[in-house]
Amino acid sequence: MNISDEQLAQLAVLARLDCASDMSLRDDVDRILHFVEQLQSVDTSQTAPLLNPLEMTQRLRPDVVTEPDDRERYQKCAPLTEAGLFLVPRVVE
């Protein structure tokens, strides 16, 4: 499916794009429309709709510590710390 000049102008108005000087936009839109045609040709009749991605089981990685505890090294340059926390001045009363 190729897009006409009028269709491209209307699309530019709807998307609020200034494409009068950009001729590569037509090629980009043509490629997008071709890709949509490819997607529409795929048979999805045997695929059950997925209402929510959270319905699927998530693959989890093992909960293993991979980084060393460098809290003291990171807090050496802090002006104030207490019990492993950074102390900062109050900015909201």
In short:
It contains three helices and two strands. The protein is mainly α and 93 residues long.
Structural class: mainly alpha
The shape is elongated
By DSSP, the count of extended strands is 2
- Counted by DSSP, the helix tally is 3
User: What would the average pLDDT be, to the nearest integer?
Assistant: 85
Strand order of the largest sheet: 1-2
The helix content is 25-40%
Low-confidence stretches: none
Distance from N terminus to C terminus (CA atoms, Å) equals 61 Å
What Rg do the Cα atoms give? 27 Å
Major β-sheet annotation: 2 strands, antiparallel
Task: Please describe what this structure looks like.
- This is Aspartyl/glutamyl-tRNA(Asn/Gln) amidotransferase subunit C.
- Its EC number is 6.3.5.-.
- Belongs to the GatC family.
- It catalyses: L-aspartyl-tRNA(Asn) + L-glutamine + ATP + H2O = L-asparaginyl-tRNA(Asn) + L-glutamate + ADP + phosphate + 2 H(+); L-glutamyl-tRNA(Gln) + L-glutamine + ATP + H2O = L-glutaminyl-tRNA(Gln) + L-glutamate + ADP + phosphate + H(+).
- Pfam families: GatC.
- This protein has 93 residues and is mainly α.
- It has a domain at 5-40.
- Helix content is 35%, strand content 4%.
- The chain contains 3 helices and 2 strands, in the order αααββ.
- The protein has a two-stranded antiparallel ribbon with strand order 1-2.
- A hairpin with a 2-residue loop joins strand 1 (81-82) and strand 2.
- The chain is elongated.
